[in-house]
Design brief:
With 637 residues, the protein is of the alpha+beta class. 44% of the residues are buried. It has 4 domains: 29-178, no CATH class; 188-303, 3-Layer(bba) Sandwich (Glucose Oxidase, domain 1); 321-501, Dna Ligase, domain 1 (2-Layer Sandwich); 507-631, ATP-grasp fold, B domain (D-amino Acid Aminotransferase, Chain A, domain 1, 2-Layer Sandwich), CATH 3.30.470. It starts with a helix and ends in a 6-residue tail after the last strand. The model is unreliable at 1-28 (pLDDT under 50). Strands 1, 2, 3, 4, 5, 6 and 7 form a 7-stranded mixed sheet that branches. Helix 8 links the parallel strand 11 (234-237) and strand 12.
């Protein structure tokens, strides 16, 4: 064992020596650390750009009182700097344990912090790791040291976690600012970088969501928060949302440039209607008239659109199958959403719960169309030249066709069967009636928000109406446009229905198993949350609470807080209603964020080939319910 330990230590030293040699051999115009920073150029040399922020790091030696501003590009972690510069050798197990005590209240050796220039908000802050249990006295000590050695004097303490936010009541003698405030003050925030050429459309404020109609070559400036939009070439929005709003998810899936810019409408009003070039970058953007060459190149590239093949629907099954008897292979019978939930139930993951439910297979949707002659109506509509060529005409025809599906009565024997299953399997409780098509939750096409969900359905007539609404939503205009963009053959899509017990959530939201703000970080999840039911979390109408949770070094970093005065809850008579939130407390305390992230980490093992997961979750008190899991689409261009 000792020989093994010596060999391992020697190998580690060799790796470290090579790394240090390479670092020394690489061109570097400054020392690995300095004891003061007196100008912006020096700070830039030692900091790391992360989207619209420049992040630097410092270490204060509590014994000497000295400060080290070290090069973040050389030493990613504070621990790396300590090992390679201060220790100049690997830490022993005892020294590593002692080092991590510096994140507790009583710090034996160091204060480990960050200095950040928030360019979009035009503010400077200092902060500490979200799991650092730093005390107010050490926050003040850090600030005093920064004021003596840093060129910016207007620097505020920024708490990174709920626990650190609690310190603000004791730190009223120094400048402070929350991440939530900075997020909402920023005048620019990129959500998907890239470039596009197209005709600029400035959408007037107050334009109803229902009237949004664009060409796929349009670059749009939105002045309202919308729950969704048809396919376009690029998006600038004057209203802030989060990376997980439906509009921003669309932009990622389409691989188009997308950013928030508060003054976009006024700044670029003169370009409205012109063909422009939009280039969204991590820290800035460019919007200018396009050249003829750019326009020709763009059109040529757009003609080479990708094509997604959806699973072929099996129309032979007529069983209302419980989720606990479904597996992933049942996608061809019951749709991907239901099949994925069945796979999660089968995995029997500790601490992960799925609401009880059952699937209505594709066959009943097809039979509903055939019973009322809607299948021939659909075929005639799809074959119509104007439907294929004109978006406005297509939207009008789809609206009428959806009304025909929703208005045609259900087969009574089928409705009896569904009603009996709700009563006997689900206890007659209010249910969620959800889409589960073969054109959603796929690795190349997640279809987030394209189809309808009807919450808290109570009673026979409401159940009938909800099933027909979900079937009809297969032909939502935005769903048709989205599938068209991805080359999905319209005759290949079918709608199954998922019926689940409704969870009257205390909180709900979405978790993505990746850091959407820093793609280099492989151990942090992005969580969006709101109180009550999660139906508005991804709508983009309001900003939810955003938390980044690090599962390697457990800790929750708060990006923004939900400031909604109301939330959605179940109505005893069926449906939902809006009520006051009744609490100013954070939606996700540290323990809640941890439990959600641990549950999400388990789901990655259930779907190992899916890449990052997009997970919809619900909290009932502290109990974690998973209501959807699908691949997160990042839209490679």
């Amino acid at each position: 064992m000792q020989h093994f330990a010596r060999a391992l230590s020697s190998a580690w030293l060799l790796v470290l020596f090579v790394a240090l040699f390479q670092a020394e051999a690489a061109p570097r115009r400054h020392a690995p650390y300095v004891s003061e920073i007196r100008d912006a150029a020096t700070f830039s040399a030692y900091a790391l750009p992360v989207e619209t922020d420049d992040v630097g790091k410092f270490l204060i030696d509590l014994k000497s009182g000295g400060i080290y501003y070290f090069d973040v590009n050389l030493y990613r972690l504070h621990q790396d700097f300590v090992i390679q510069v201060l220790f100049r050798r690997p830490m022993t197990d005892e020294e590593r344990t002692e080092y991590f005590r510096n994140y507790r209240e009583d710090k034996p050796h160091y204060i480990l912090g960050y200095v950040t220039h928030h360019r979009a908000a035009k503010r400077w802050t200092f902060s500490f790791w979200e799991s650092d249990r730093i005390r107010p006295a050490d926050v003040r000590r850090a600030r005093d040291t920064l004021l003596k050695t840093f060129f910016v004097q207007d620097i505020a303490f920024r708490p990174e976690s709920t626990r650190q936010e609690e310190l603000l009541a004791e730190l009223k003698d120094i400048p402070t600012v929350t991440s939530d405030t900075l997020y909402k003050q920023a005048d620019y925030r990129p959500f998907n970088t890239g470039a596009a050429t197209g005709r600029l459309r400035v959408v007037p404020p107050g334009t109803p969501y229902e009237s949004l109609l664009f060409d796929s070559e349009d670059i749009v400036i939105l002045q309202e928060s919308y729950p969704d939009l048809p396919p376009v070439a690029g998006v600038l929005s004057t209203q802030f949302s989060t990376p997980l709003s439906h509009v921003n998810l669309r932009a990622r899936a389409w691989g188009i440039p997308n950013a928030t810019l508060k003054d976009a409408a006024t700044r670029y009003a003169a370009l409205d209607g012109q063909v422009v070039r939009l280039d969204v970058r991590g820290n800035t953007h460019v919007l200018r008239p396009a050249t003829e060459k750019e326009l020709a190149t763009w059109k040529q590239a757009r003609e080479a659109a990708r094509t997604v093949l959806v699973p072929a629907a099996d129309l032979t099954a007529h069983e209302l199958r419980p989720l606990k008897r479904m597996r992933a292979r049942d996608t061809r019978l019951y749709g991907t959403k239901a099949a994925n939930l069945g796979e999660i139930i089968h995995a029997k993951l500790p601490g992960v719960h799925v609401p009880d439910g059952f699937g209505i297979p594709f066959a009943f949707y097809v039979e509903h169309l055939q019973r009322h002659g809607l299948h021939t109506e659909l075929e005639a509509m799809l074959a119509e030249p104007r439907f294929q060529q004109e978006a406005a005409f297509r939207k009008e025809r789809l609206e009428k066709f959806r009304a025909r599906i929703a208005g045609a009565p259900l087969d009574e024997a089928f409705l009896n069967q569904v009603e009996t299953q709700v009563r006997e399997q689900l206890g007659g409780k209010g249910v969620f009636v959800r889409s589960s098509t073969n054109a959603e939750d796929l690795k190349g096409f997640n279809g987030a928000g394209l189809y309808d969900t009807v919450p808290n359905v109570v009673g026979r007539e409401a159940l009938s109406a909800a099933i027909r609404q979900v079937w009809a939503s297969l032909w939502n205009f935005h769903a048709v446009e989205e599938r068209k963009r991805f080359g999905i053959e319209p005759r290949s899509v079918f709608s199954a229905v998922l019926v689940q017990v409704g969870i009257n959530a205390t909180a709900a939201g979405v978790l993505v198993t990746k850091n959407l703000y820093d793609p280099r970080d492989k151990h942090t999840f992005t969580i969006n949350a709101k109180r009550g039911l999660g139906l508005s979390v991804v709508s983009g109408v309001t900003v939810p609470e955003q938390v980044l949770y690090d599962i390697r070094y457990p800790g929750a970093r708060v990006l923004s807080r939900s400031d909604d005065a109301t939330m959605l809850v179940f109505d005893a008579q069926g449906g939902i209603k809006e009520v006051p939130t009744g609490s100013a407390a954070p939606v996700l305390a540290e323990a809640r964020a941890r439990d959600l992230s641990l549950a999400a980490a388990k789901l990655r093992k259930v779907f190992p080939d899916s890449g990052p997961l997009d997970i919809e979750w619900v909290l009932e008190g502290e109990k974690v319910w998973i209501v959807q899991s699908r691949p997160f689409i990042d839209g490679a261009r």
